[in-house]
Structures are given as C-alpha cells and as structure tokens.
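Review the following:
>
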Amino acid sequence: MEEQHMAGPPYRYRLQHRRLMDIAPASASDDDSGHHGSNGMAIMVSILVVVIVCTLFYCVYCWRWRKRNAVRRAQIERLRPMSSSDLPLMDLSSIHEATNSFSKENKLGEGGFGPVYRGVMGGGAEIAVKRLSARSRQGAAEFRNEVELIAKLQHRNLVRLLGCCVERDEKMLVYEYLPNRSLDSFLFDSRKSGQLDWKTRQSIVLGIARGMLYLHEDSCLKVIHRDLKASNVLLDNRMNPKISDFGMAKIFEEEGNEPNTGPVVGTYGYMAPEYAMEGVFSVKSDVFSFGVLVLEILSGQRNGSMYLQEHQHTLIQDAWKLWNEDRAAEFMDAALAGSYPRDEAWRCFHVGLLCVQESPDLRPTMSSVVLMLISDQTAQQMPAPAQPPLFASSRLGRKASASDLSLAMKTETTKTQSVNEVSISMMEPR
C-alpha cells in the first residue's frame, strides 16, 4: 500500500504528461492545416479575379479591333466601285518604310490637302505620297471623291495616280514621282532656262495642249481645270509635261459648252476676264490660261504682278503689241539665243494670242489648238488674233490702274499658291 501510495502520483503525472504530448502535435497539425487551407483559397480567388479581368480586357480589345476593322472595311468598300480596274490599295507599313516614317528630309512641300513626301519602294520605284492633314478641310467623302475621279483620268500628260492607303486614321494618295519638279522652276530661273531649248519648249506646249484636250473632250468626264499655270505643270526625267493639281477642277458629266458660274478661285495672271470679273467659267476659261502659259514659255517671263508693275501692262498685252508691230522676235526668250525655227515659233506665238482673246467665242477649242500646233499652217491661213483683255471692269474699276491690278493679282496668287511638286486636291463635281 505504501509503495503504491508513493509510486502513484509520479505515475499519474507521467501518464498525463504523455497524453498532453500526444494531443499537442495533433492540435498544431490542425492549425497548420487550417492556415494553409485559407491561404490556398485566397490564391485561388486572386487567380480567378486576374483571369476574369484579363478576359474582360481581351473582350474589350477584340470588340475595339473588330469595330476598327469594320470601319476600315467600310472605307475600303466605299473606294471599290471606281472602274473595271480598281486602284491598288497600299498598306501603311510599306509607305512608312518608303518615306522613312515621313521624315523631314523626304518632305517635298505642303498644299491644301496636306504634306507631300518623296518615297522609294522596295523595288526602287520612286513615289510621291500625299498625306491627308488633320487640319485639312477635306474629309472621308472628299477623299473618296478624289480617288474615284482622279483614278479615271489616265493620260501621259497628266500626273499618274498609283494607289491609295486607307488604314487606321490615315488617308493617303500615292502618285508617280517627277524628279524635275515644276515648269516654273526652269522657265523663270535664269540659271536653268537655258536647259529649255526650242525643241523642249515646243514639246512642252504640245504635251500640255494634248493633256487639256483629254480633260475637255476625250476623258470619260469633261473636266475644267481652272488653275492651269506653270507651277501646276510638272516635268518628268525626259522633260515631258504632266498637268497636276486638280484642286480647283470642276467635273461635268453632261455635254455642252455652256458657261457656269461659281466662286472665283485660281491665279489672276492666268484667269480669263469673264471668270476673274464675273465668276463665269467654261472650257474656254482653260483655253485662256493655256494661251497665257504658251506666251510665258515663249518669253521666259511670268505674267504676274511684277511684270505689270515694271511695264505698266500685262505680258499678253505686250505680246499682242509686238506681234502687230512685226517685232515678235523681241518677245522671244533671250535664253533661246535666236536658235529656233521661225515658222514653228511664230505658229506657237499666233496660237497663244488666239487663246487669250477677250471674247470666249473667239478663242479656239483645245482640239483646234492641237491641230494648229501640229499643222504647217502659216499666219495667213490662221485667223488674226483680236486684242487681249485689259481687265477693266466694275469689279476693279472701269479704268483700273496698274497698281490696283497688281495688288489684285498679287493677293489672289498668294491666296491660291499651290505646292510646285506633286499636288493633288479634291475634284469638285457639279
């Protein structure tokens, strides 16, 4: 009994201690299991939230991508119905590469449509890219209108449209690149005018005449250019002329040569009097501009405000005076140094004077102009030119002074100055 009494408590203590030791690890294991379980749940919830958010972002991106492509497809589809041979659509990446991402070094100039850039395609072909400016007043409808109309005007004496780009927010027209720039850069530069010998000048006159004949009579639409001038005639590497810048053009699908009225746009030195004073234009308005251009090519002088200020009369009035006084040789450009066939030069001179007559009814059509230029008609076989206009009317005063006319010409030229390089703008149908 005594032994049991003495041994009892320690035994019980050991037994209780052993039980506690058995229970403690089990409790710690349960706590760890609960802790790990809650952590796993949090991770799973986090992953699920991330997946949901990413899925939402992806859905939004896909929606925006489909919407953007739908708009682009709609724009392209609107560009489709042009002709049996569709205009090539160029991708933006290739144009970026060709123009070195529209670098300043490749910028040729800027007009109403936007800046013009020179580019080189992968195969080495040079292009001129007209990029619609964000500040341009021409939107998608005008862009489509221009693509459709200019794509239908294909002639060796018109600047050729190669393709267009409608991608993202960009709208661009791609034209052939003409390395010699514009006619005025040669004609009115004493350092370069010597490169225009008689054969070259005669070829330029005839090429411009054929291009205008195509616009007036031979194209699918009758086109009145309304801004024919030396800076809007570009020259290729063989000095062949290409008419450009149809920003002021009017398109007519119906036949007939009846005059039309509209806002006066263009450059006064080349404007027909009925258009400059009353806003009345027709194919004969273009004929007048062509006549002024012919006289400029023969004389090497510009019919502008500087000539008017210096001589107190216009270049065309000077030309008519010298013609009547049989002093036509004095009118010819000194850079020619008298090296030209007299009969051919006088025929061009005569045609130019016939085109700048004051009455539109007296001016020849472009088909008659081409025939006269390629024929062997003499001055006796051609009608005598009447006096060119004095540009005196109620708009500038019945007896407008040379200073008034000079100011008007200078102002209008400044307003409508166009880029001498490839320049394209909206063609405005009736």
In short: Residues 1-6, 79-85, 392-408, 410-430 have pLDDT under 50 and may be disordered. The chain has two domains: 92-176, 184-429. Residues 92-176 form a domain with the Phosphorylase Kinase; domain 1 fold (CATH 3.30.200.20).
